[in-house]
Amino acid sequence: MSHILIIGAGGVSQAATVKCAMNSQVFTKITLASRTKSKCDKIAKFIKDKVGVDIDTAAIDADDTAAVVELIKNIKADLLLNVALPYQDLTLMDACSQTKIPYIDTANYEHPDTAKFEYKLQWAKDGDFKSANTMALLGSGFDPGVTNVYCAYAKQYLFDEIEYIDILDCNAGDHGYAFATNFNPEINLREVSAKGRYYKDGKWIETEPMEIGFSWDYPKIGPKDSYLLYHEELESLVKNIPTLKQIRFFMTFGQSYLTHMKCLENVGMLRIDEVEHNGVKIVPIQFLKTLLPDPASLGARTKGKTNIGCVITGIKDNKPRKVYIYNVCDHQECYQETGVGAVSYTTGVPAMIGSMMVAKGIWSGNGVFNMEEFDAKPFMDELNKQGLPWEIIEMAPNETRLIKEI
Ligand code: NDP
To answer: For residue 54, how many other CB atoms are within 10 A of its CB?
Structure first.
């Protein structure tokens, strides 16, 4: 019996809120609040028509901790799911620790002016949550989120020791535009234009953006060019799987996307600092967001599949072992069910499952936690029931699906 307060009303929120409504035995009441209330009302209408559940909506500025505290108290929320932007993580965490309710999010904190994403400031709130006798669950999307749970499942059930992890994220969906981003353009472009980084033999190694790449044969999709990026789950997995010798993250990009990115970068459109244009101050990357298609609108026109998974190598019973755990999701199937495509769906469904683990007390504790710190099994079981079934390929230790280096 839980009243969930969901903050943010974009594509990820739509998937998460629809799925919460479909699990109304757990989420007995839902309030959806965002900066623009009309976006919440639109999702509420979709849910009423599709699932037959009524939800409440509200306007909120999530940057204003006092206003969020007041809302939590007024509606008597039992837990808060943050699917607004990473900029709001800290203020929403403070509102939760002050009102002593659990906090769940899908992306680590980013400062709008520095494009630096790391867990440091969120982990630093561990004491606040411990004092409040409640918990924060960080990164309950797909990557981070399900990828952390795949690694935890491997650590807890499949291996005695994990040595190498490659996380491989493929979006083979075609939306028909020359250039558009899969989720919030500002967050997406900041992530993919940053320097790459991976962990090897106790050290972090920095690369130029898109410097390391290969063509990888994704199950049920086929070969796709994939490039090394820094991704936030690397930070927590290195901390929580101390036997790791190497962990890397790869994401697929088509040639058209890369060419557009290069041009935009060359002309300064990815800048995150203010510039003056005809006497008006603008941040170029925010202006670009205004021009690009709204990611939430891509669902209806995107055809094809995603495949996100982990190739994990290590030791089991004194013998080398290698497994590939992944999920394949179809954009149009996601759209038919929730009104959004696979990128929002694969993030919103785990956001709901993480909230469910917390609401049912299956995952519990006092403090700030990452996904891999809990028993992976109940979450893995729920993935199969809630629309994100996973598969495992047992690979020979020297087998690879790498087709060629780029
Ligand atoms: P959108 O930009 O589509 O939606 C963000 C929503 O947050 C909008 O409704 C926006 O309101 C609202 N919002 C922004 N600022 C505030 C504020 N100050 N107060 C209240 N509401 C606010 O983003 P997405 O749905 O694409 O992504 C949501 C989150 O999911 C992001 O944090 C993203 O990083 C994360 N994500 C995580 C992934 C994972 O696998 N872990 C993958 C993809 C995304 P308004 O309508 O007024 O603009």
So the answer is: 11
Q: Half-sphere exposure of residue 174, counting CA atoms within 13 Å on the CB side?
A: 5
Q: Could you say which architecture CATH assigns to the domain 2-137?
A: 3-Layer(aba) Sandwich (3.40)
Q: How many CB atoms lie within 10 A of CB 201?
A: 8
Contact, 215 vs 224, CB < 8 A? yes
Percent above pLDDT 70 for the chain: 100
**Beta-carbon neighbour count of residue 293 at 10 Å?**
14
- Collapse the DSSP code of 382 into the 3-class scheme (helix H, G, I; strand E, B; otherwise coil) and give the result: helix
Start-end of CATH 3.40.50.720 domains in the chain? 2-137
Residues 6+ apart with CB under 8 A from 262: none
Provide CB contacts within 8 A for 74, sequence distance 6+: none
Q: How far is the CA of 147 from the centre of ligand 1 (A)?
A: 20
Percent of all residues in the chain with a pLDDT value above 90, rounded to a whole number: 90
How many whole angstroms from 400 Cα to the centroid of ligand 1? Answer: 36
**Whether the predicted model's global pTM rises above the 0.90 cut:** yes
Protein residues whose CB sits closer than 6 Å to any atom of ligand 1: 8-13, 34-36, 39, 60-63, 83-86, 88, 106-107, 141-145, 183-184, 187, 295-296, 347
CB atoms within 10 A of CB 291: 8
The answer to whether the beta carbons of residues 362 and 378 sit under 8 Å apart is: yes
CATH superfamily of 146-339+389-405: Dihydrodipicolinate Reductase; domain 2 (3.30.360.10)
Nearest CA among 23, 16, 18, 19 for reference residue 2? 23
Please report which helix (H) or strand (E) contains residue 51, including its range: helix 37-51
Burial of 72 (0-12, 13-18, 19+ CB in 10 A): buried
